[in-house]
Design goal:
Chain lengths: ~140, ~675
């Protein structure tokens, strides 16, 4: 479903970014980078309310002609950004949410590993396989 | 080298076997023969075969058939081969028939047509895929082993290899403690059998540099010492035969009937299990609870594997991804680490034998007696952990050095074994026996020494502790902002010092103005002499006078004023005395003759004070007042001194608390630094 999945740390550097290999990866990297601005905007817009009340799923960040970019942020300000191909029959919002939930669960599993230092790049094979499963569903 | 095939095979060209082929074939023949409960008969066993094994005349059809099936050739080809080799003709597989058959199999496997002329050709050794022998092998690559297909790269170059196919993946425990006496194969036949195999693997290893045969080789010498040490020889041959039969069958077998599968690298043996459980206990006394992530991290980091590998091992073994290891998870992780340290590549997924349910089922009880393990277990029972720790302390310098070193010894032995030639193989095996038994002893000893010295265990435990509880709330005794606290501080102390001195006055109105304090001050002063009510007329005088002196006094004793003035609100009068400024004022006033330095006013004013007081009061009372004042001054002095003492004590307490708070703050800052995520930028 997704053509690009990225996990961005709180300080806005990537912990994990992976694109479908067929595409020009640089383009996706750029899209993710620009989407961070939108994410920050959404966070700050809701920021007046307590963090607890802020929903984790941010929804569609912005659409381009070919792609749609969805965002999700955790309570520790770790952001998940997903780029989805627009040509797919429109993915339901719930599906996107479930994909983000899976990402979040896998991310917490990575965090549970005591050998993982927060802030390192994510090299977990389980995480990789989960992202692969998300990315090749569409293909 | 046999120049001609003896026996009844008159047809076809003579069978020329190279030395290697000779060995392999004879070994195969011997195994088939032994497995088949060889019938007696003259066996013109090859000279090499006569090394250690009784050469059997015929190979039983059953194992032979299994062996042929293991060669992965189509049935038709096998039939052809059988026919050609003459077994059908003579009705049995004699040595010559067997050798011819093997040669034909080799030819067929290399693609040559199955014809009697093929036996003349130089063909590589036939390849057989075995399921199990107890002389067996560890092999390396799990992915290869899954398949029934033979590992071609190995074999094309050289020797006959036995590949064992497991139910599980694979790699086996290299450590010698893994062998239990029950699993040890009979000494001589397997010994013999291993000799050519070791030779085979030796060449193979040197050429292909694959790790996989290495463990096999290592296994062999490791297994050998177990042989002599194992049980009655009488039990061995049947077991050997049984195991050989098993070995030639291609089907998978249930593993459960034999718990001692030395071949399987991912199966935890009893000894290992005991060791892991003991290690678990050293980290976490309760076998049924968890080891936290940080404790386990410290522990496994000592294995000196790289962090990504450790991370991957954790991923594999922490099945429920909760950041903590239960006992089965811990054993699995430890086992994977051990395997990795011995050179096995990590599996893609957790092998079935290492999964939690399996481990829990297979080893329901944490401790099981094992013959070989007794001596070992005696050294490592849980209740002797302190002794272990002591021993470990002695070895603490090298405790982790021991960890990689013995394994390297084992692997180096492996490699040495592999590179040996056939001739050396036997002596080397013999020489490796003491070496490996020494290694096994050292490996057994290693658990003791490797158990991470007490200091590191303590560190592990400390790291595993919860983060220090937040600093206790400052006691309510010292906050400067709270006057009541000071009261509480002084309440116990002051009564002790001033117990007999003055009865506490009734509750004071809040924030008494200095006049009131002075009122109380005077009151307390006077109360020693007279009850307060009689002082009323003086209060007014003093109050008036004191008020005028408030301002100069204020600057002089600002500190005293701040705290004491608040404290004086509700404190008994005697507290007022120590730290209320207004009380000091009367003191001052009265002490002006005694404390000129602290007063701006000179004695003239001091005199004037009393004088002014005197002027207010009736003159008749001046004399009385002065004497009273003297007494009051004396009491005031006393009280001031006590107040000083109390204040000094308070000061020291505050200083102490300040130090503690500073320390806590520093500790918290350190913690924050540690917990703060590392920024890549």
């Amino acid at each position: 479903m997704a053509v690009c999945v990225a996990v961005i740390a709180k300080e806005n550097y990537p912990l994990y970014i992976r694109s479908a290999p067929t595409e020009n990866e640089l383009k996706f990297h750029y899209m993710v980078h620009t989407s961070l601005d939108v994410v920050d905007e959404k966070i700050s817009a809701m920021g007046k309310a307590l963090v607890d009340q802020r929903e984790l799923y941010l929804g569609l960040l912005y659409p381009t002609e070919d792609y749609k970019v969805y965002g999700y942020v955790t309570n520790s300000k770790v952001k998940f950004v997903m780029v989805v191909d627009s040509s797919n029959t429109a993915l339901r919002d719930n599906e996107i949410r479930s994909m983000f939930r899976k990402l979040h669960n896998s991310y917490t599993d990575v965090m549970c590993n005591p050998f993982y230092n927060p802030g390192d790049r994510i090299q977990s094979r389980a995480f990789d396989s989960m992202v692969t499963s998300m990315m090749i569903q569409v293909c | 080298m046999e120049a001609a095939a003896g026996g009844g095979c008159g047809s076809g060209p003579p069978l020329l076997l190279s030395e290697g082929e000779q060995q392999c074939y004879s070994e195969l023949f011997a195994s088939c023969a032994a497995a088949g409960a060889a019938v007696g008969g003259p066996g013109s066993g090859p000279p090499e075969a006569a090394r250690a094994v009784p050469s059997a005349a015929t190979a039983a059809a059953g194992p032979v058939a299994d062996l042929f099936r293991a060669s992965q050739l189509p049935a038709e080809t096998l039939h052809q081969i059988t026919e050609l080799c003459g077994a059908k003709r003579v009705g049995y597989f004699g040595p010559t028939q067997f050798y011819i058959a093997l040669k034909l199999i080799a030819a067929a496997q290399s693609g040559l047509p199955v014809r009697i002329e093929s036996i003349k050709c130089e063909v590589p050794l036939p390849r057989f895929l075995m399921s199990k022998t107890d002389a067996e092998i560890r092999f390396g690559n799990p992915t290869e082993l899954h398949g029934t297909k033979v590992q071609i790269p190995y074999l094309i170059t050289e020797k006959n290899t036995f590949k064992r196919m497991d139910d599980e993946d694979k790699q086996q425990e290299t450590q010698s403690p893994t062998m239990s006496p029950l699993a040890s194969p009979p000494s001589s036949p397997p010994h013999y059998q291993r000799v050519p195999l070791s030779h085979a693997y030796g060449k193979l290893r040197s050429n292909t540099e694959q790790m996989h045969p290495a463990p096999y080789e290592a296994r062999q010498p490791l297994v050998q010492p177990e042989g002599p040490s194992s049980g009655a020889p009488g039990t061995k041959p049947p077991r050997h035969q049984a195991s050989l039969i098993r070995s030639f069958s291609v089907e998978r077998e249930p593993q459960d009937n034999n718990s001692n599968y030395p071949d399987e690298p991912w199966r935890i043996t009893e000894e290992q299990r005991e060791y892991y459980v003991n290690q678990f206990r050293s980290l976490q006394p309760d076998p049924s609870s968890f080891i936290s992530g940080s404790v386990a991290k410290n522990f496994f980091t000592k294995s000196k594997l790289s962090i990504p590998e450790l991370s991957y091992i954790w991923e594999l073994s922490d099945a429920d991804c909760d950041g903590a290891l239960t006992l089965p998870e811990f054993c699995a992780a430890f086992h994977l680490i051990v395997a990795r340290k011995n050179g096995y590549p990590l599996p893609e997924g957790l092998p079935p034998t290492l999964q939690t349910e399996y481990l829990q089922a297979a080893f329901p009880k944490p401790k099981r007696e094992c013959a070989l393990f007794d001596s070992y277990s005696e050294s490592m029972p849980a209740n002797q952990q302190p002794r272990d720790l002591n021993r470990m302390e002695k070895l603490s310098v090298k405790d982790m050095a021991d960890f990689p070193v013995p394994t390297q010894d084992v692997t180096s032995d492996d490699k040495q074994g592999l590179k040996s030639t056939a001739d050396e193989a036997l002596p080397r095996d013999v020489s490796e026996d003491p070496a490996t038994s020494k290694d096994s002893n050292s490996l057994k000893a290693r658990p003791r020494s490797r158990s991470y010295s007490s200091t590191s265990i303590e560190e592990a435990m400390k790291r595993g502790e919860d983060p220090p509880t937040p600093p206790p709330r400052p006691q309510k005794t010292h906050s400067r902002a709270s006057s009541l606290d000071l009261n509480k501080v002084f309440q116990p102390s002051v009564p002790a010092t001033k117990s007999g001195l003055l009865p506490p006055p009734p509750a004071l109105p809040p924030r008494p103005c200095p006049s009131q304090i002075s009122h109380l001050r005077v009151n307390s002063k006077r109360s020693a002499q007279r009850r307060p009510p009689t002082q009323l007329p003086n209060y007014g005088d003093f109050r008036l006078q004191k008020q005028s002196e408030q301002a100069p006094e204020a600057e002089i004793h600002p500190q005293l004023n701040r705290a004491p003035s608040q404290a004086a609100e509700s404190s008994p009068a005697k507290k007022d005395i120590p730290y209320s400024q207004p009380p000091s004022k009367p003191i001052r006033r009265k002490f002006r003759p005694e404390n000129p330095a602290t007063e701006n006013q000179d004695t003239s004013t001091a005199v004037g004070g009393p004088a002014s007081a005197a002027t207010v009061k009736p003159h008749a009372a001046v004399q009385k007042q002065s004497s009273k004042q003297k007494k009051a001054i004396q009491t005031a002095i006393r009280k001031n001194k006590e107040a000083n003492a109390v204040l000094a004590r308070l000061n020291s307490e505050l200083q102490q608390q300040l130090k503690e708070v500073h320390q806590e703050r520093i500790a918290l800052e350190n913690q924050l630094e540690q917990l703060r995520p590392v920024t890549v930028l």
